[in-house]
Automatic annotation (TrEMBL):
<dbReference type="GO" id="GO:0006508">
    <property type="term" value="P:proteolysis"/>
</dbReference>
<keyword id="KW-0788">Thiol protease</keyword>
<keyword id="KW-0325">Glycoprotein</keyword>
<keyword id="KW-0732">Signal</keyword>
<dbReference type="InterPro" id="IPR013201">
    <property type="entry name" value="Prot_inhib_I29"/>
</dbReference>
<dbReference type="InterPro" id="IPR038765">
    <property type="entry name" value="Papain-like_cys_pep_sf"/>
</dbReference>
<dbReference type="GO" id="GO:0008234">
    <property type="term" value="F:cysteine-type peptidase activity"/>
</dbReference>
<keyword id="KW-0645">Protease</keyword>
<comment type="similarity">
    <text>Belongs to the peptidase C1 family.</text>
</comment>
<dbReference type="Pfam" id="PF00112">
    <property type="entry name" value="Peptidase_C1"/>
</dbReference>
<dbReference type="InterPro" id="IPR000169">
    <property type="entry name" value="Pept_cys_AS"/>
</dbReference>
<feature type="domain" description="Cathepsin propeptide inhibitor">
    <location>
        <begin position="49"/>
        <end position="108"/>
    </location>
</feature>
<feature type="signal peptide">
    <location>
        <begin position="1"/>
        <end position="24"/>
    </location>
</feature>
<dbReference type="InterPro" id="IPR039417">
    <property type="entry name" value="Peptidase_C1A_papain-like"/>
</dbReference>
<dbReference type="InterPro" id="IPR013128">
    <property type="entry name" value="Peptidase_C1A"/>
</dbReference>
<protein>
    <submittedName>
        <fullName>Uncharacterized protein</fullName>
    </submittedName>
</protein>
<feature type="domain" description="Peptidase C1A papain C-terminal">
    <location>
        <begin position="138"/>
        <end position="359"/>
    </location>
</feature>
Length: 374
């Protein structure tokens, strides 16, 4: 038996002996309410691991795996504690334990995060944004969730299909804004049918928009349900369309200004790419500044999300309201607030490097210059 497994068994015995009457922390506590600084010893960390496993309904096949997962859990716990200790103000974003806490960042990246190669734009479906747009009437804060243009937070599960969730979110949004009706659209259709993307191994929402235009629309999640797996396109489901888009506008690997992005977001929810760092993985709340993205190369991107609004905190920090697709138990009920107007060209974690939004009806932003169809 390996020493890791032996240690685990000893911890199990100690833990079973002490958990009920004598432990200072009841087993039933929720992870989010616990002070992680109290769990520093091996025994306490193990206790916390048991609470975490129960809360996340995690079971392992073998003791070897459980022992290995516990090691990773401990190093994530240490990471979260150290990062939180460095917070300068109580308003700085917080890290915490979440459903990814038994995975290392490397392992997590292989499943959830994928860099995408530069897409080749062909056909007359999209236009590149050329100038800096400004919307003089845009208010200082805006939230599409309060206008009924955003569906519930979805969960991509163990499939790297963030691009499909980002794309459905943008189409759901523009449908509600133009047609006054909010559909819940099918990510699985995009994962299975957008053959130019790589399904659960990554892709670009722009190609999803192009597919939807060529397909004559997209169906509902109820008609083409999510399986979190690659599979062949079911064309009879794919043709049962419930909403359409006309075209899409995009920018790629050329950061746009925060002012333009604010203008686009005021017009509709916008798909963007960013670099999801280790801090991003463990984010649990506050305004995220992405300190560990500072060393990330020029416009390097590995994740797609949806910006649904913007605002400023009481102490004057501007932020984007960003919808993620890692379930409502990640971040702030599935959302992350990302700092805006930092003055850096690429934005926090490269958030203004690449993005796109679909067009439908007459929702075009005035005075926006677009490349002729490419
Ligand atoms: C693209 O071109 C085709 C053929 O010229 C035309 O039928 C179609 O409507 C065009 N689509 C868009 C989005 O402009
Ligand atoms: C496609 O979906 C329909 C239901 O809409 C189902 O009856 C059919 O078996 C599916 N086809 C394949 C090849 O899975
Ligand atoms: C990118 O984003 C930052 C932060 O929101 C902003 O300050 C900056 O002006 C943006 N774009 C460019 C091209 O600088
Ligand atoms: C934190 O935010 C509160 C209100 O949101 C503000 O009053 C306070 O000054 C902020 N603290 C710091 C250190 O920025």
């Amino acid at each position: 038996m390996s020493s890791l497994v032996t240690n685990l068994l000893i911890l199990f015995l100690v833990w079973y002996g002490s958990v009920c009457p004598t432990s200072s922390v009841p087993y039933e506590y929720s992870i989010s309410n616990l002070d992680l600084d109290k769990f520093t010893s091996e025994k306490e960390a193990f206790h916390l691991f048991q609470i975490w496993k129960k809360e996340n309904e995690r079971e392992y096949q073998t003791l070897e795996e459980e022992a290995a997962r516990f090691q990773i859990f401990k190093s994530n716990l240490k990471y979260v504690r150290e990062k939180n200790a460095k917070r300068k103000s109580p308003n700085d974003s917080r890290l915490g334990l979440n459903k990814f806490s038994d995975m290392s960042y490397e392992e997590f990246s292989k499943i959830y995060l994928h860099e995408i190669e530069k897409p080749i734009m062909k056909g007359n479906y999209s236009k590149m944004i050329l100038n800096d747009a400004s919307c003089p009437n845009a208010p200082s804060s805006w939230d599409w969730r309060t206008k009924g243009a955003v569906t519930h937070v979805k969960d991509q599960g163990g499939c790297g299909g963030c691009w499909a969730f980002s794309a459905t979110g943008a189409i759901e949004g523009i449908t509600q804004i133009v047609s006054k009706w909010l559909p819940d659209l099918s990510e699985q259709q995009l994962i299975s049918c957008v053959t130019r993307n790589k399904g659960c191994e990554g892709g670009w929402y722009g190609r999803a928009f192009k597919y939807v235009i060529r397909n004559g629309g997209i169906t509902s999640g109820a008609n083409y349900p999510y399986t979190a797996k690659d599979s062949a396109c079911n064309s009879s489901r794919a043709q049962n369309i419930i909403t359409t888009i006309d075209s899409y506008n995009y920018w790629y690997h050329t950061p746009i200004s925060g002012r333009s992005l604010r203008c686009f977001v005021y017009n509709q929810p916008v798909s963007v790419s960013l670099y999801a760092s280790a801090e991003f993985k463990s984010y649990t709340g506050g305004i995220f500044k992405g300190h560990d993205c500072l060393g990330i190369g020029s416009c390097k991107l590995n994740h797609a999300v949806l910006i649904v609004g913007y605002g400023s905190s009481d102490d004057g920090q501007d932020y984007w309201i960003v919808k993620n697709s890692w379930g409502a138990n990640w971040g702030e009920q599935g959302y992350i607030r990302i700092k805006r107007n930092t003055g850096s060209t690429r934005g926090v974690c490269n958030i203004n490097c690449s993005g796109a939004y679909p067009t439908k009806g007459k929702n075009e932003i005035p005075a926006l210059k677009l490349a002729t169809s490419i």
